[in-house]
Design a protein that fits this description.
The chain is of the alpha/beta class. It is built from nine helices and seven strands, in the order H-H-E-H-E-H-E-H-E-H-H-E-H-E-H-E. The longest helix is centred in the N-terminal third of the chain and has 11 residues.
Length: 175
Amino acid sequence: MSTQTLDKAKANLPVRGFLKIDDLIIPKGEDLVKAILDLKKEKNAVILAHYYQPAEIQDIADYLGDSLQLARAAKDTDADMIAFCGVHFMAEAAKILNPNKKVVLPDTQAGCSLADGCSGEGLRKMREQYPNALIATYINCNAETKAESDIIVTSSNAETIINALPEDRPIIFAP
């Protein structure tokens, strides 16, 4: 990668949720797919990609799925390194499930407005205001928010889990 390309990539990193890959200058003749796959092999890495990723990323991924499917793939991998092509809370989940593995997030500013709209601090305030309530949180939140929750649900199990909770306790569903 040329210095000009590296400098441009570094300049684009602070842009929230968008690594300007289209603006990168790729040296003529450089095969990025081959370079990525060679590096993946060298590092004994696995590439996990969310369905929202561009087709070019999906094409080189070892696993493609939603956040729950990718968390399961991260848990089950024998790779030494996990390259998580998704948003920050997904990479956090992969790291929590694999504390001894290196987890990298190619776009460190990749965010999710849903997850960003619900903070651990906000849930602590809700708990103070409603101490008897159970806090159920959708899985697509950051680790701090999950840590402040009583229950974590997914889109496929939320109804079943919420219906199984005690009827005499109020429920705060976040975000």
